[in-house]
Write a structure and sequence with these properties.
Elements (H helix, E strand, L loop, with lengths): L10 H4 L6 E11 L5 E11 L3 E5 L6 H8 L7 E6 L2 E2 L5 H6 L1 E5 L10 H11 L4 H14 L4 H4 L9 H12 L6 E5 L7 H17 L3 E6 L2 H7 L2 E6 L2 E6 L1 H6 L4 H10 L3
Parallel strand pairs: 3-8, 3-9, 6-7, 7-8
Antiparallel strand pairs: 1-2, 1-4, 4-5, 9-10
Helix pairs in contact: 4-5, 4-7, 5-7
Length: about 260
Amino acid sequence: MTGANPGKRSARARKIGAVNALVDLQDVTKRFGAGPLILDHVSMPVEEGSILALLGASGSGKTTALRLINRLAQPDHGRVIVLGRSVNEWDVVELRRRIGYVIQEGGLFPHFTVERNVGLVPERMGVSPARVRQRVYELLELVGLEPKDSMGRFPRELSGGQRQRVGLARALAADPPLLLFDEPFGALDPITRRRLQEEFRGLVRRLSKTAIIVTHDLAEACRVADEIVVLHEGRVAQRAAPKELLAGPASGYVAAFVAASLPE
């Protein structure tokens, strides 16, 4: 799909214009202080309703891309478009209410119960306590937790898989169209990780969300994503569907990454 040019986008990606892209990074460059370029003229539209995996080694720019989308950082050059508007045109609170954000261990507040963690955003949006409680109950059921057993518990009383499910429920609390995941399954054991990956993909599909997941795990990216963007030293090394990426690495770096990720 990408041919010999490692920076060339897939045919499907080239068809995605601003009209169809829920998120669009347009010629984005970012460095922190006097350090090296973290993102180097990256363009990356994300089609509405799709799951895109950002794959690459540590320091390749994956998490920085998420931070720019969530306006936790600003690009030095280029534009970041979310829901048809530059992130700088959004009120930052309103923007983040349109985005669910999940990190390892769910990023839960340790001193809040599960109910308070999940219900925090609706509560701050002025939703009535009764409706917040109902919403929490519905979301915990949605992510596979028994509400009556979990609502009053604290994060330290949960397993890693349970904390990740609570983190997903919290990300969905305001019903955002966009979900960002920063290595959400990295701290889990292999069996739990595989099960949650499959449930994650099914849930995103069922709810018609758009999702971007950061990972360094090729198998995970292939399992959950419609397309994979391989980042290398801040640039797009290849963008392709999982099968196409495995069958036709676009550069020596991508080929080495794929080879190193495959079981011996």
